[in-house]
Amino acid sequence: MEKAHCTVHRQALWILCVHVICSLSYVAENISTTETTMDVNLIEENHHQHEVGSKWSPLFEDGPGPINVTARIGSTVQLNCKIQLLYDKTVTWVHRKSDDIQLLTVGRQVHSSDQRISLSFRYPNNWRLQIVYITDRDDGVYECQVATHPPTTKKTYLRVDVPTVRMSVTGTGDVTRGSNDVFYKTGSTLEIVCKVVHAGSNNGSKVSWYRGRQTISTGITERTSNDSSSTTIVSTLKIKHVQKTHSGNYTCLVGSPSASAAVTIHILNGEQPAAVHDGNSGPLVCCVAGWWLLTLCCLVLSS
């Protein structure tokens, strides 16, 4: 009887152990499943945290744009691109003009061969593009892009203001004006006035002077005036007691050949203006006359 009682107790204890083991296995399985679910959720969150539209996606501090910027020829322009929540994403700048697309920067590296273009990064988050000595070919759309999927883009429309440039020639002494040329006698005073008119206010544009390809830096005076709609710059080049060496093509330029004016100056040393032109065209006239004379002689001989 006692032996049978011990057997019953052993069976009950065995059943209890089986239940405990099964319970522990179930708890362990649930814990593992919970951890796996958390890991999957964390991976998915990390995968989607930079997707456009998510709470972790990069955004532009000043809004998505677009922005309109007007710059003067010859001035310096800086295009801002302030980005929050960038993390490890790459920023690029591209220039779009008509059907032409130019890659300018990738990260902090400049990929443009144009030395005027640089990335002027400003801490902590301004990926600012800088262009110096602006020309008319710089206008167009500039895109600051963040390498998300799809790319996050902010557009800046740059318009380059091309001023009107007019040139007039005055001076003292014996001055003769032709259609495209001005003649001075040796010892006269040469004075060339370059008038530049900008729309709006002045933005640092500069008038440069050249004789041929040589830069002129002396004998120049400049004054600027403003009204409600425009800015006028009057730059004057004055040379006293001119000599033959002062002859040449004089150009005033504001940042680009499209904003320039030129005049050809001849300094005479006793000769007449007509003689200058005759001296240049004489060989051509002589050759033409000689050709016709030779033709006439051949016709006479052949008859």
TrEMBL record:
Any Pfam family hit: Ig_3
InterPro entries in the record: Ig-like_dom, Ig-like_dom_sf, Ig-like_fold, Ig_I-set, Ig_sub, Ig_sub2, Zig-8
One Gene Ontology CC term in the entry: neuron projection membrane
CDD domains assigned: Ig
Coiled-coil region(s): none
Stored Gene3D superfamilies: Immunoglobulins (2.60.40.10)
Domain named Ig-like: residues: 58-161, 163-264
Record key words, sorted: Signal
Segment forming the signal sequence: 1-23
BP GO terms, sorted: synapse organization
Name of protein: Ig-like domain-containing protein
Organism: Acyrthosiphon pisum
Lineage summary: Eukaryota, Metazoa, Ecdysozoa, Arthropoda, Hexapoda
